[in-house]
Amino acid sequence: MATASTPGIRPLNPNFSSGPCAKRPGFTLDALNGAFLGRSHRAAAPKARLNEVITRSRAILGLPADWRLGIVPASDTGAVELALWNLLGARPVDILAHESFSEGWANDIVKQLKLAGARVLTAPYGRLPDLAAVNPAHDVVLAWNGTTSGVRYENADFIAADREGLVICDATSAAFAMNLPWEKLDVVTWSWQKVLGGEAAHGMLALSPRAVERLLTYKPAWPLPKIFRLLSGGKLIEGVFKGETINTPSMLCAEDAVDGLRWAEGIGGLPALIARCEASLAAVAGWVAASEWAGFLAEVPAQRSCTSICLTITAPWFTALDAAKQAEAAKKIAALLENQGVAFDIAGYRDAPPGLRIWAGATVEPADVSALLPWLDWAHAQVRNEMAGV
Protein backbone atom coordinates (compact mmCIF):
# COMPACT_ATOMS: atom_id res chain seq x y z
CA MET A 1 0.00 0.00 0.00
CA ALA A 2 1.24 3.49 -0.81
CA THR A 3 2.15 5.85 1.98
CA ALA A 4 1.08 9.49 1.71
CA SER A 5 3.99 11.93 1.52
CA THR A 6 4.64 14.17 4.49
CA PRO A 7 2.80 17.48 3.96
CA GLY A 8 4.96 20.55 3.55
CA ILE A 9 2.66 23.01 5.35
CA ARG A 10 1.79 22.83 9.04
CA PRO A 11 -0.98 24.61 10.97
CA LEU A 12 0.48 27.63 12.73
CA ASN A 13 -1.67 26.80 15.76
CA PRO A 14 -2.17 23.06 16.37
CA ASN A 15 -4.83 23.54 19.07
CA PHE A 16 -8.01 21.90 17.78
CA SER A 17 -9.39 20.82 21.14
CA SER A 18 -13.17 21.02 21.61
CA GLY A 19 -12.76 22.50 25.06
CA PRO A 20 -10.96 24.34 26.40
CA CYS A 21 -10.51 25.75 22.93
CA ALA A 22 -7.84 27.70 21.08
CA LYS A 23 -7.14 31.25 22.24
CA ARG A 24 -7.97 34.06 19.84
CA PRO A 25 -5.37 34.81 17.14
CA GLY A 26 -2.49 36.90 18.47
CA PHE A 27 -3.25 36.20 22.12
CA THR A 28 -0.48 36.65 24.68
CA LEU A 29 -0.61 36.85 28.44
CA ASP A 30 -0.06 40.59 28.14
CA ALA A 31 -3.76 40.80 27.26
CA LEU A 32 -4.51 40.02 30.92
CA ASN A 33 -2.42 42.79 32.43
CA GLY A 34 -5.52 44.76 33.38
CA ALA A 35 -7.01 41.97 35.51
CA PHE A 36 -8.20 43.04 38.95
CA LEU A 37 -6.09 40.51 40.83
CA GLY A 38 -6.18 40.66 44.61
CA ARG A 39 -9.34 42.78 44.52
CA SER A 40 -12.79 41.95 45.82
CA HIS A 41 -15.17 41.06 43.01
CA ARG A 42 -17.73 43.13 44.93
CA ALA A 43 -15.70 46.33 44.54
CA ALA A 44 -16.91 48.83 41.96
CA ALA A 45 -14.19 48.39 39.31
CA PRO A 46 -14.04 44.56 39.36
CA LYS A 47 -17.85 44.37 39.34
CA ALA A 48 -17.88 46.71 36.36
CA ARG A 49 -15.49 44.36 34.54
CA LEU A 50 -17.81 41.41 35.22
CA ASN A 51 -20.72 43.47 33.96
CA GLU A 52 -18.65 44.27 30.87
CA VAL A 53 -18.61 40.56 30.05
CA ILE A 54 -22.40 40.65 30.20
CA THR A 55 -22.95 43.83 28.19
CA ARG A 56 -20.46 42.98 25.44
CA SER A 57 -21.88 39.44 25.15
CA ARG A 58 -25.42 40.83 24.87
CA ALA A 59 -24.40 43.23 22.13
CA ILE A 60 -22.45 40.72 20.02
CA LEU A 61 -25.13 38.03 20.25
CA GLY A 62 -28.01 40.41 19.64
CA LEU A 63 -29.76 39.31 22.81
CA PRO A 64 -33.31 40.73 22.94
CA ALA A 65 -33.57 43.81 25.14
CA ASP A 66 -36.05 42.19 27.53
CA TRP A 67 -33.84 39.14 28.22
CA ARG A 68 -31.59 38.93 31.28
CA LEU A 69 -28.01 37.66 31.10
CA GLY A 70 -25.84 36.69 34.05
CA ILE A 71 -22.59 34.97 35.01
CA VAL A 72 -23.13 31.77 37.02
CA PRO A 73 -20.85 29.13 38.55
CA ALA A 74 -19.50 25.91 37.05
CA SER A 75 -19.28 26.60 33.33
CA ASP A 76 -22.07 25.63 30.93
CA THR A 77 -22.81 22.58 33.05
CA GLY A 78 -23.62 24.78 36.02
CA ALA A 79 -25.75 27.09 33.90
CA VAL A 80 -27.79 24.21 32.48
CA GLU A 81 -28.22 22.52 35.85
CA LEU A 82 -29.29 25.82 37.42
CA ALA A 83 -31.99 26.14 34.78
CA LEU A 84 -33.15 22.53 35.13
CA TRP A 85 -33.39 22.61 38.92
CA ASN A 86 -35.13 26.00 39.04
CA LEU A 87 -37.57 25.71 36.16
CA LEU A 88 -38.56 22.11 35.53
CA GLY A 89 -41.43 20.30 37.17
CA ALA A 90 -44.21 22.74 36.36
CA ARG A 91 -45.03 20.89 33.12
CA PRO A 92 -44.13 17.64 31.43
CA VAL A 93 -40.76 17.89 29.67
CA ASP A 94 -39.40 16.59 26.37
CA ILE A 95 -35.62 16.06 26.33
CA LEU A 96 -33.99 15.84 22.89
CA ALA A 97 -31.01 13.54 23.42
CA HIS A 98 -28.69 12.85 20.49
CA GLU A 99 -25.19 13.04 21.95
CA SER A 100 -23.42 12.83 25.29
CA PHE A 101 -24.32 16.17 26.86
CA SER A 102 -28.00 16.10 25.99
CA GLU A 103 -28.03 12.49 27.17
CA GLY A 104 -26.55 13.78 30.43
CA TRP A 105 -29.36 16.30 30.84
CA ALA A 106 -31.86 13.50 30.21
CA ASN A 107 -30.20 11.39 32.90
CA ASP A 108 -30.34 14.23 35.43
CA ILE A 109 -33.98 15.00 34.69
CA VAL A 110 -35.14 11.38 34.81
CA LYS A 111 -32.87 9.94 37.52
CA GLN A 112 -31.99 12.92 39.72
CA LEU A 113 -35.03 15.20 39.52
CA LYS A 114 -37.15 12.10 38.86
CA LEU A 115 -39.78 13.96 36.86
CA ALA A 116 -42.63 11.60 36.07
CA GLY A 117 -43.69 13.68 33.06
CA ALA A 118 -40.34 13.41 31.28
CA ARG A 119 -40.07 12.01 27.75
CA VAL A 120 -36.62 11.34 26.29
CA LEU A 121 -36.62 11.63 22.49
CA THR A 122 -33.42 9.96 21.36
CA ALA A 123 -31.35 9.60 18.21
CA PRO A 124 -27.99 7.93 17.58
CA TYR A 125 -24.82 9.94 17.05
CA GLY A 126 -25.01 11.63 13.66
CA ARG A 127 -28.76 12.29 13.68
CA LEU A 128 -31.39 14.42 15.41
CA PRO A 129 -34.44 13.01 17.21
CA ASP A 130 -37.95 13.04 15.70
CA LEU A 131 -38.65 16.76 15.99
CA ALA A 132 -42.29 16.33 14.99
CA ALA A 133 -42.81 14.52 18.29
CA VAL A 134 -42.07 17.63 20.38
CA ASN A 135 -45.18 18.69 22.29
CA PRO A 136 -45.68 22.50 22.46
CA ALA A 137 -47.46 22.08 25.79
CA HIS A 138 -44.29 20.57 27.29
CA ASP A 139 -41.05 22.16 28.39
CA VAL A 140 -38.19 21.22 26.06
CA VAL A 141 -34.49 20.66 26.84
CA LEU A 142 -31.99 20.46 23.99
CA ALA A 143 -28.39 21.09 22.96
CA TRP A 144 -28.38 23.35 19.89
CA ASN A 145 -25.06 21.97 18.71
CA GLY A 146 -23.87 18.50 19.67
CA THR A 147 -20.29 19.08 20.72
CA THR A 148 -19.60 15.35 20.74
CA SER A 149 -21.59 14.44 17.61
CA GLY A 150 -21.06 17.39 15.26
CA VAL A 151 -24.81 17.68 14.66
CA ARG A 152 -26.66 20.99 14.94
CA TYR A 153 -30.24 22.10 14.46
CA GLU A 154 -30.64 23.71 11.07
CA ASN A 155 -33.62 25.81 12.25
CA ALA A 156 -36.20 26.10 15.00
CA ASP A 157 -39.27 25.41 12.88
CA PHE A 158 -40.18 22.49 15.14
CA ILE A 159 -40.67 24.87 18.09
CA ALA A 160 -44.13 26.43 18.13
CA ALA A 161 -44.22 30.22 18.31
CA ASP A 162 -47.28 29.96 20.61
CA ARG A 163 -45.77 27.20 22.74
CA GLU A 164 -46.94 26.84 26.31
CA GLY A 165 -43.75 25.30 27.66
CA LEU A 166 -40.27 26.74 28.05
CA VAL A 167 -37.36 25.82 25.76
CA ILE A 168 -34.06 25.35 27.62
CA CYS A 169 -31.16 25.40 25.18
CA ASP A 170 -27.60 24.35 25.90
CA ALA A 171 -25.71 26.47 23.35
CA THR A 172 -22.18 26.14 24.64
CA SER A 173 -20.63 25.21 21.28
CA ALA A 174 -23.11 27.29 19.27
CA ALA A 175 -23.12 30.75 20.89
CA PHE A 176 -20.90 33.18 18.94
CA ALA A 177 -20.69 30.70 16.03
CA MET A 178 -24.29 30.32 14.89
CA ASN A 179 -27.41 32.46 14.68
CA LEU A 180 -29.61 31.44 17.60
CA PRO A 181 -33.41 31.80 17.19
CA TRP A 182 -34.00 33.83 20.35
CA GLU A 183 -37.72 34.13 19.67
CA LYS A 184 -38.07 30.34 19.90
CA LEU A 185 -35.92 29.90 23.04
CA ASP A 186 -36.43 30.78 26.71
CA VAL A 187 -33.20 29.79 28.43
CA VAL A 188 -29.84 29.79 26.66
CA THR A 189 -26.56 28.76 28.28
CA TRP A 190 -22.91 28.72 27.26
CA SER A 191 -19.43 28.91 28.72
CA TRP A 192 -16.40 31.10 28.20
CA GLN A 193 -14.07 28.33 27.09
CA LYS A 194 -15.69 27.42 23.79
CA VAL A 195 -16.15 29.61 20.70
CA LEU A 196 -14.22 32.63 22.01
CA GLY A 197 -11.50 30.53 23.66
CA GLY A 198 -11.92 31.87 27.19
CA GLU A 199 -10.73 30.21 30.37
CA ALA A 200 -12.88 27.75 32.29
CA ALA A 201 -15.28 27.51 35.25
CA HIS A 202 -17.79 30.26 34.43
CA GLY A 203 -21.17 29.86 32.77
CA MET A 204 -23.55 32.30 31.13
CA LEU A 205 -27.30 32.13 31.70
CA ALA A 206 -29.73 34.02 29.45
CA LEU A 207 -33.39 34.16 30.47
CA SER A 208 -36.41 35.27 28.45
CA PRO A 209 -39.32 37.09 30.14
CA ARG A 210 -41.25 33.80 30.06
CA ALA A 211 -38.44 32.07 31.95
CA VAL A 212 -38.35 34.84 34.55
CA GLU A 213 -42.11 34.55 34.98
CA ARG A 214 -41.73 30.81 35.63
CA LEU A 215 -39.05 31.55 38.25
CA LEU A 216 -41.34 33.98 40.03
CA THR A 217 -44.50 31.88 39.94
CA TYR A 218 -43.29 28.29 40.35
CA LYS A 219 -41.54 26.72 43.33
CA PRO A 220 -39.79 23.38 42.74
CA ALA A 221 -40.58 20.49 45.04
CA TRP A 222 -36.89 20.04 45.91
CA PRO A 223 -34.44 22.25 47.82
CA LEU A 224 -32.01 24.36 45.81
CA PRO A 225 -28.30 24.67 46.65
CA LYS A 226 -27.11 28.22 47.27
CA ILE A 227 -25.24 28.43 43.94
CA PHE A 228 -28.52 27.67 42.10
CA ARG A 229 -30.68 30.30 43.82
CA LEU A 230 -31.88 33.22 41.71
CA LEU A 231 -34.61 34.41 44.08
CA SER A 232 -34.51 36.15 47.44
CA GLY A 233 -37.68 36.88 49.34
CA GLY A 234 -39.68 35.76 46.34
CA LYS A 235 -38.03 38.33 44.07
CA LEU A 236 -35.44 37.92 41.33
CA ILE A 237 -31.90 38.72 42.44
CA GLU A 238 -31.30 41.36 39.78
CA GLY A 239 -27.67 41.82 40.77
CA VAL A 240 -26.79 38.44 39.22
CA PHE A 241 -27.52 40.04 35.85
CA LYS A 242 -25.33 43.08 36.54
CA GLY A 243 -22.07 41.40 37.51
CA GLU A 244 -22.87 40.51 41.13
CA THR A 245 -22.02 36.83 40.88
CA ILE A 246 -23.49 34.14 43.14
CA ASN A 247 -20.03 32.95 44.21
CA THR A 248 -16.49 34.25 43.85
CA PRO A 249 -15.44 34.47 40.18
CA SER A 250 -11.93 34.53 38.76
CA MET A 251 -11.08 38.08 37.78
CA LEU A 252 -8.25 36.67 35.64
CA CYS A 253 -10.78 34.61 33.68
CA ALA A 254 -13.08 37.61 33.46
CA GLU A 255 -10.29 39.71 31.96
CA ASP A 256 -9.64 36.97 29.45
CA ALA A 257 -13.34 36.80 28.54
CA VAL A 258 -13.43 40.56 27.94
CA ASP A 259 -10.33 40.27 25.76
CA GLY A 260 -12.03 37.65 23.61
CA LEU A 261 -15.17 39.76 23.32
CA ARG A 262 -13.17 42.85 22.31
CA TRP A 263 -11.40 40.78 19.67
CA ALA A 264 -14.77 39.59 18.36
CA GLU A 265 -16.01 43.16 18.11
CA GLY A 266 -12.82 44.21 16.36
CA ILE A 267 -13.16 41.68 13.54
CA GLY A 268 -16.80 42.51 12.83
CA GLY A 269 -18.91 40.90 15.54
CA LEU A 270 -21.21 37.93 15.13
CA PRO A 271 -21.31 37.88 11.30
CA ALA A 272 -17.51 37.69 11.17
CA LEU A 273 -17.36 35.00 13.84
CA ILE A 274 -19.90 32.88 11.99
CA ALA A 275 -18.08 33.41 8.69
CA ARG A 276 -14.81 32.11 10.16
CA CYS A 277 -16.50 28.95 11.45
CA GLU A 278 -18.37 28.34 8.21
CA ALA A 279 -15.17 28.81 6.20
CA SER A 280 -13.50 26.07 8.21
CA LEU A 281 -16.47 23.76 7.71
CA ALA A 282 -16.45 24.47 3.97
CA ALA A 283 -12.77 23.54 3.79
CA VAL A 284 -13.40 20.23 5.55
CA ALA A 285 -16.49 19.54 3.42
CA GLY A 286 -14.48 20.02 0.21
CA TRP A 287 -11.80 17.68 1.50
CA VAL A 288 -14.35 15.03 2.59
CA ALA A 289 -16.03 15.16 -0.82
CA ALA A 290 -12.75 14.07 -2.41
CA SER A 291 -11.64 11.71 0.36
CA GLU A 292 -11.49 7.96 -0.11
CA TRP A 293 -11.49 7.25 3.60
CA ALA A 294 -13.28 9.94 5.62
CA GLY A 295 -16.87 11.08 6.03
CA PHE A 296 -18.97 13.26 8.32
CA LEU A 297 -20.58 11.74 11.39
CA ALA A 298 -23.53 14.11 10.83
CA GLU A 299 -25.59 12.50 8.09
CA VAL A 300 -27.56 15.56 6.87
CA PRO A 301 -25.38 18.31 5.32
CA ALA A 302 -27.49 21.16 6.72
CA GLN A 303 -27.09 19.70 10.22
CA ARG A 304 -23.29 19.55 10.17
CA SER A 305 -21.70 21.63 12.89
CA CYS A 306 -19.35 24.45 11.94
CA THR A 307 -17.60 24.25 15.32
CA SER A 308 -17.28 20.62 16.43
CA ILE A 309 -16.60 18.89 13.12
CA CYS A 310 -16.84 15.14 13.70
CA LEU A 311 -15.44 12.73 11.13
CA THR A 312 -15.88 9.01 10.64
CA ILE A 313 -13.51 6.60 8.91
CA THR A 314 -15.25 4.90 6.01
CA ALA A 315 -12.36 3.01 4.37
CA PRO A 316 -12.99 -0.73 3.92
CA TRP A 317 -9.86 -1.68 5.87
CA PHE A 318 -11.28 0.21 8.86
CA THR A 319 -14.90 -0.92 8.66
CA ALA A 320 -13.72 -4.54 8.49
CA LEU A 321 -12.20 -4.21 11.98
CA ASP A 322 -14.07 -5.04 15.17
CA ALA A 323 -15.16 -2.17 17.44
CA ALA A 324 -12.10 -2.37 19.69
CA LYS A 325 -9.69 -2.29 16.76
CA GLN A 326 -11.57 0.60 15.18
CA ALA A 327 -11.21 2.61 18.38
CA GLU A 328 -7.52 1.72 18.52
CA ALA A 329 -6.94 2.81 14.92
CA ALA A 330 -8.72 6.16 15.38
CA LYS A 331 -6.68 6.87 18.51
CA LYS A 332 -3.48 6.01 16.64
CA ILE A 333 -4.30 8.59 13.96
CA ALA A 334 -4.91 11.26 16.60
CA ALA A 335 -1.73 10.31 18.46
CA LEU A 336 0.39 10.50 15.31
CA LEU A 337 -0.85 14.00 14.63
CA GLU A 338 -0.13 15.04 18.20
CA ASN A 339 3.37 13.54 18.04
CA GLN A 340 4.01 15.55 14.89
CA GLY A 341 2.83 18.71 16.67
CA VAL A 342 0.24 19.47 13.98
CA ALA A 343 -3.01 18.71 15.86
CA PHE A 344 -3.68 18.32 19.55
CA ASP A 345 -6.74 16.64 21.09
CA ILE A 346 -8.67 15.65 17.96
CA ALA A 347 -9.64 12.10 18.92
CA GLY A 348 -13.39 11.56 18.74
CA TYR A 349 -15.39 11.72 21.96
CA ARG A 350 -15.13 8.50 23.97
CA ASP A 351 -18.83 7.62 23.63
CA ALA A 352 -19.08 8.55 19.94
CA PRO A 353 -18.34 6.17 17.06
CA PRO A 354 -14.55 5.91 16.49
CA GLY A 355 -13.30 8.85 14.49
CA LEU A 356 -11.82 12.34 14.72
CA ARG A 357 -13.16 15.65 16.03
CA ILE A 358 -11.77 18.97 14.80
CA TRP A 359 -12.77 22.09 16.70
CA ALA A 360 -13.33 24.94 14.25
CA GLY A 361 -14.74 27.65 16.48
CA ALA A 362 -14.14 31.31 15.71
CA THR A 363 -10.71 31.48 17.35
CA VAL A 364 -9.38 28.80 15.00
CA GLU A 365 -7.94 30.15 11.77
CA PRO A 366 -9.61 28.59 8.71
CA ALA A 367 -6.14 28.50 7.13
CA ASP A 368 -4.98 26.22 9.96
CA VAL A 369 -7.91 23.87 9.33
CA SER A 370 -6.98 23.75 5.64
CA ALA A 371 -3.34 23.08 6.52
CA LEU A 372 -4.39 20.21 8.78
CA LEU A 373 -6.31 18.28 6.12
CA PRO A 374 -3.31 16.85 4.21
CA TRP A 375 -1.93 15.69 7.54
CA LEU A 376 -5.11 13.70 8.13
CA ASP A 377 -4.43 11.86 4.88
CA TRP A 378 -0.83 11.28 5.93
CA ALA A 379 -1.75 9.94 9.39
CA HIS A 380 -4.50 7.74 7.98
CA ALA A 381 -2.07 6.15 5.52
CA GLN A 382 0.47 5.49 8.27
CA VAL A 383 -2.08 3.78 10.52
CA ARG A 384 -3.68 1.87 7.66
CA ASN A 385 -0.33 0.39 6.68
CA GLU A 386 0.57 -0.35 10.30
CA MET A 387 -2.74 -2.12 10.96
CA ALA A 388 -2.33 -4.10 7.72
CA GLY A 389 1.21 -5.14 8.66
CA VAL A 390 2.80 -3.37 5.67
Notes on the protein architecture:
This protein is an alpha/beta fold. The protein has two domains: 29-265, Type I PLP-dependent aspartate aminotransferase-like (Major domain) (Aspartate Aminotransferase, domain 2, 3-Layer(aba) Sandwich), CATH 3.40.640.10; 269-387, Aspartate Aminotransferase, domain 1 (Alpha-Beta Complex), CATH 3.90.1150.10. The chain is 35% helix and 14% strand. It contains nine helices and twelve strands. It has helices spanning 44-61, 75-87, 100-112, 209-217, 251-267, 269-290, 316-319, 323-339, 366-387; strands spanning 68-73, 93-97, 118-122, 139-143, 167-170, 187-191, 202-207, 231-232, 235-236, 294-296, 308-313, 355-359. The strands form three sheets. Strands 1-7-6-5-4-2-3 form a seven-stranded mixed beta sheet, sandwiched between helices. A three-stranded antiparallel beta sheet has the order 10-11-12. Helix 3 (100-112) links the parallel strand 2 and strand 3. Helix 1 runs parallel beside helix 5 (251-267) and helix 8 (323-339) packs across helix 9. 48% of the residues are buried. The model has no long low-confidence stretch (mean pLDDT 97).
Itemize the secondary structure elements and their pairings.
Layout: H1 44-61, E1 68-73, H2 75-87, E2 93-97, H3 100-112, E3 118-122, E4 139-143, E5 167-170, E6 187-191, E7 202-207, H4 209-217, E8 231-232, E9 235-236, H5 251-267, H6 269-290, E10 294-296, E11 308-313, H7 316-319, H8 323-339, E12 355-359, H9 366-387
Parallel strand pairs: 2-3, 2-4, 4-5, 5-6
Antiparallel strand pairs: 1-7, 6-7, 8-9, 10-11, 11-12
